[in-house]
Amino acid sequence: MGAVAVAVASAVTVVVVAVLLVVALVWPALATARQVDASRDNRATAYAATVLAAAPANALVVTSSDRDTFPLWYYHYALARRPDIVVIVNPLLEFAWYRANLRAVYPMLEVPENGGAPSVEDIMAVNPRLSQVCWTDPDGERVVACSASGSR
Question: CB neighbours (10 Å) of residue 59?
Answer without folding.
Answer: 22
